[in-house]
Amino acid sequence: MATVNQLPDALLVKNYIAGDEQALAILIERHQSKIYGFIYSKVQDRDITDDVFQDTFIKVIKTLKSNSYNEEGKFLPWVMRIAHNLIVDHFRKNKKMPMQRETEEYSVFSYMSDTSMNIEGRIITEQVEADLLRILDELPADQKEVLVMRMYQDLSFKEIADITGVSINTALGRMRYAILNLRKVIEKNQIILSS
């Protein structure tokens, strides 16, 4: 007769779902070093590893308690996938991705995405930019100058005033009139500027 500690994962999961809290403790103890080591290898920080490990088992418990665990006898890979997703979420929140080593279970291609613009997107963007340049050419020179300095060169109104030799109020006024005139041209020609 097998002792409780020798029961297969699938049976322990089944026992836990049936109400045997000890079964989960055995599963955690059985796999904690692998799961913890996996998490730590990705985040390289003990505190974050502790948090992700805890969150992983909170998610495991919730899933098991809600009877949405699909029993395929693959408890450890399932838990590792949960941990992996939580690691990715952590790095997304903090806007940095970990160095990822290729393994049998995880491929570097699962992290890669093509963020380059597709051909259609490039054509639309080029058309919008061409339309905008055409519209800008219809503005009086002083208004166009202020708008280009502010929007494309990211200069402050003080810097624009110094460069053009006018007061800040005059630079602000020219910008205001440039925007108003742009709106009139856009409405008159029914131009849609969106990509």
Structure description:
- By secondary structure, this protein is an all-alpha fold.
- The chain has eight helices and no strands.
- The longest helix is centred in the N-terminal third of the chain and has 23 residues, at 21-43.
Topology:
Elements (H helix, E strand, L loop, with lengths): L8 H9 L3 H23 L2 H20 L9 H19 L25 H18 L4 H11 L5 H8 L3 H22 L6
Structural class: mainly alpha
Taking the sheet with the most strands, its summary is: none
Q: What characteristic shape results from the CA principal axes?
A: elongated
Which regions have little confidence, pLDDT < 50, spanning 5+ residues?
A: none
Query: Could you estimate the helical fraction of the residues in percent?
Result: 55-70%
Order of helices and strands: HHHHHHHH
Oligomer: single chain
DSSP strand tally: 0
Which strand-content bin applies to the residues?
A: under 5%
**What count of helical segments does DSSP give?**
8
Q: Could you tell me the mean pLDDT?
A: 81
Spatial separation of the terminal alpha carbons: 68 Å
Rg: 30 Å
